Structures
1.
Amino acid sequence: MQVIRFEQQDSVGHIVLANPPKNLIASDFSNALKQAVHEASESDIRALLVRAEGPNFSQGGDVIDFLEKNASQFRTFIAECNQSFRAIEALPIPTVAAVRGAAYGGAFELALACDFIVAAEDAVFRCIEASVGSAPVAGAVQRLAERIGRSRAARCAMLCEPMSGVTAGQLGIATQVVPAGDVEAAALKFAQGLAAGPTRSYAAIRTLLKAWSGGGVPSADAMILDITMALHSSEDARRGRTARAEAIKQGIEPQRIVFTGR
């Protein structure tokens, strides 16, 4: 059974967690995610949506699978999961996670690897690791701190309190919060909007954010001209500025431009 698959619908790629109802993270999950991300990276998609079949995004790690691994095997497994999560972050396109039901442990970390999270109001995000004597191993602590600050990240990771989609939206973890039945449609619409946007501009913005994350404002400032100046002569910029100039001449608000370049 294929527990994760990649599929493409027009300019939006989908990585689908396809082992409902729990979509547990185990060796087969890690191997399939690696393949799906590889397929996404070699496609011509302009945005990526990570979503799940069944009632839950994922209930996290398969502890039975974990108990069967010795220390070296578990370290390799976690390293491979991290590689796939970081590969999603490294894609040159915007990424969206659609979360309803449970997003526990590593599944929460998978969602945090995406640029945007569209969450169900009653979704449940939870760092569960400390409750079983472990700690988040695939980026939750630092990525939560980046999104919501150190003290809130410490509370999430140490106290293992469940967090609703509504709370995730209020804190800024989730970009958009909708009723559970609307999650996939809302996330797809969001991803389609990104896919119709200026992909190279998005890539530059994502690179600046990574620079800021690694070295603060001075690091991003040092790279800003090298990252952004190539956009000035791009076809996207020419079309966008021309359309805006024409709209200004006519005294109207310019409409959203649909971009086709990479």
2.
Amino acid sequence: MYALRTAVLRPAGGWTALEVVASTGSTNADLLAEAGRGAPDRSVLIAEEQVRGRGRLDRTWISRPGATVTMSVLWRPEGVPADRLGWLPMLAGVALVDAIAEVAPDVPAAMKWPNDLLVGPSRGKAAGILAEMTAVSGGGPGVVLGIGLNVATPAHELPWGATSLAAHGLTATRAEVVVALLGHLYLREAEWRDAGGDADACGLRSDYRSRCASLGSRVRVERPGGDHLVGMAEDVDPQGRLLVHPDGGERVAVAAGDVVHLRPADHP
């Protein structure tokens, strides 16, 4: 614990506060509560085990003790317009890819829009990201961002389509993964914040594009209203929306939805 604190907290790492707990229901829920009580900007909460974690679209995320990296961070990016906060989950995705490149350079990693981590030649999902706004009270508005990363979860405990870093040859320890990830998260968010949340000015949009496997792929986007869109994913706009050119139609900017990468044999 001391070594972790030394590596990630100020002055070495830039983070303000760090807490590690043995078990919790949800690190996001816990840190949201702490934010309401005035927890400082750039606080970190890590759990060895999480039993009621939440993912996007109200999915659950349960972490096995000792096999995952389960953490949440609190950011209070004063001066950044609210309409730019949607970049934070995508920023975290870029940080994840870069952290894996640091600790496991032989493990292929990329993003599926907006923020699912794909790992290995078969591009299995290895991590999920969830961002939630804090209450206005208790130190001002902020964002709690949670990351669940499968480091060494056994294959038989993973759902279909999921994978872990260890399954693709990771030899680094979980502590080394945490230090690398928090380092990249801090630097990315600091640059983005200094640019007023402008994803182009700080290079975030360009870097996200280069790490997003969805771009240039034929996709099916399942949207929250229940309909779906099939076409070519062409780009990400300055607001972080996925630009899809549907079959026989005009380009559409997608703000939310689940993306499925289609193979040649797949049908809408």
3.
Amino acid sequence: MRLRIVTINVQNNEGDPRRLGLINQELRRLAPDLVALQEVVDGGSPRHLDGLVAGTGLHCTHQSEVMSYAPPFVDRYGGNAVATRWPHKVVEVLDLRLAGAGDVPWCTLAVKVPLPGEGELLFISATASWRLDAEAVREQQAVALGDLDARHRTDLPTIIAGDFNAGPDAASIRYLTGRQSLAGRSVHYHDAWEVAGDGPGYTWSAENENAAALFDQIVRQPGHRRRLDYVFTGSWHAHPRARCEIRAARLAFDRPVDGVWPSDHYGVVVDVEIGRDGSVPPTQS
């Protein structure tokens, strides 16, 4: 069956309040089946998450709904959320605050989603430490993410999406894509943009006015741009009886509407064909 996956960092509630409506408008147009949302503030009236997915028909869960405590700064910087076409079941929330990343309230959220006629799929919404000098922390978080998958994965290839705050050449991303080991461990996921994207796929760019102020504060170099937002799919090594073929990957939320940018990040939209071996149609030539 075909699935559409979207990931977008919604930049909590900073800036022009019209932004959330623009994100909702685009989500309704894209009609995704699985959505990973980062920096969603769990508040407001209506609740921010409800406003983001209004009219989409998606079932949503914010990390705060399934945690017994609130991490520091969550009221300002928000948390992770998922939205799915079919009702999902939360299997784990992983708090990845580590030494050097104690100011990050975003917890990784793992849910199982029943795909009609195919079975359950593990879908994970993730965010890694944001500081430019925190790659050592992101390495630990990447290893923990692979372990989280291993605890809950199903026959169908796992899908992981989110804001990883690291470029494709960083150790954390190289680990997830099987290019290097960390702490004597190794995993392998397919990077959807690498398989089917066109161009560099930058999702954090100085061309985005919402990002420019932050660049001036922490990067302080002209023309900065990087690819930080990803969709990863599990590979044959962990799922030998199923396939997840990446058919398309493109950017979304990547231009202003009436002068308003939807977020300081661009989103990523990925289309896949997923199913048990024999149920995925051949690629059209």
4.
Amino acid sequence: MANDGTTLDCDAILFDLDGVLVDSHPLIERILRAWAADRGVDPDVAVAASYGRRDIDLVRVVAPTLDAEVEAAWIVEREERDFTGVVPIPGAAGLLAALSSARWAIVTSGTRRVARGRLRAAELPEPVYMITAEDVIEGKPAPEGYLRAAELLGVAPNRCLVVEDAESGVRAAEAAGMRCLGIGTALADGGIGAALDAWATDLRSIDPEQVTAEHVRLNIHPNGSN
């Protein structure tokens, strides 16, 4: 993992949503803690296991004796109508504004209604292509979502750069044969670093040096100075 600044060239950028483009973690945590407390699940375990996972996959992990579809529907129903406190990650609006609409997509573990609501709440644009929980059979860390996004953009997987804040997403990018830029403190340390091509504190650390109709070159400044 790079520490002193890196230049990355790619033909498309595939963004995770929560924790990468929008800060929705306080909202997600509030909903999950309410669900977990009502089901006799350790709330801390539920929150820790949620990052990068679809709700149905989360239930299967932390509460395997419960009906995953029923429980996920309870969580999703609340996620689809509550967007209190959702804000953009610092630097998100500027970076997306610099990119051509043909050069980026979102791959999220949330539903389409959740993703659209959080983008609206954060006043960020919706991409042409957005892969959500309904679009895949297997969620992250399976590579299906990222491979589907690359296909829709018409870009080879090895020419895509994934931007992720969770280990499951990094593993999905790795399985898809894509490079990965880690964002945030959760990926700053630990064994996952070997799977990252670069790391930065947030999107303010990313300088889109060159953006054309078919190519993007990014300078990554891990400490936030660009």
